[in-house]
Amino acid sequence: MMNTIEKIRRKAKGRQKTIVLPEYYDERVVEAARILKEEGIARPLLLTREMIDPEEKERYIEEFYEIHKARDMELEEVRKLFAGTLYYAAMMTREGKVDGLVAGAAHTTPDMARASIRCLGVDEHITIVSSCFIMVVPDCLYGDEGTFVFADCGIIPEPNSRQLACIALSAAELTAKVLGLTPRIALLSYSTKGSAKGRSLEKIAEAIGLLKEMSPGLLVDGELQVDAAIVPEVARIKYPDSPVGGKANVLIFPDLDAGNIGYKLVQRLSNARAVGPLLLGLKKPASDLSRGCLAEDVVDCAAVTAIRAE
What we know:
Elements: H1 2-13, E1 18-21, H2 27-39, E2 43-46, H3 54-68, H4 75-81, H5 86-95, E3 100-102, H6 109-120, E4 130-136, E5 147-151, H7 161-179, E6 184-188, H8 199-214, E7 219-224, H9 226-230, H10 232-238, E8 250-252, H11 256-270, E9 273-280, E10 286-287, H12 295-308
Parallel strand pairs: 1-2, 1-3, 3-10, 5-8, 6-7, 6-8
Antiparallel strand pairs: 4-5, 4-9
């Protein structure tokens, strides 16, 4: 099980990136910073209030206000956002003073996502922000020896066709960059290639078409039921001509309900390691954390963020 995690940590060591951790008051984050430093996985910056430069903070506030004032955001409202350390850390990441941001142990996913989107900006290549998990399932023959990427599990409630395509593309890019694997993408459904009918299936078909236009070389198929996507014996029965059937390692869920339920079921029932949520589609790398995370989860997210910062 730990082989993939060990590879990620080893790969991060070779980068020696600085990762800012603004939740200095959380014991799990403090412990993670210690591990990151002692094992040389990354250079952690545990950002405390005392470390914040008042002049720099004021500059960040004014810069943030200039970026967002067109949205009727008042200066006093911006000052409230910068009362803690999260937005300051995000602006440090935007400016390149640090290489990546990891937070969420003490912030909700909406709070972390808003700070990241507002401060880091959206990558024009991807156009939307979503999230994924690296799932490492012990004693598993499927995916890449039990390693998968699941998306989107944390951000977009009901993605349209273009959003599904962008989620798939960004998850595929992370799979290649962080894990060094060839992404084999399945857009999941309750149907396999027309075994049922419904508007959601039309949406998936449209997404597949868009994805092939965006990145013609990708290995992608859908709609696929999850067993047809990851189990070779089932794929041979249900859809033997699929280019990824039975071999998928990137699973794209049709909506946030399915994605969030799916990753938590796999995590809890199989004792899988779930690394994330890793935010996708930003100009700089950032990782959210589950508020139920362990120190080791923070370390793993920081390691992935360090690799993505290259």
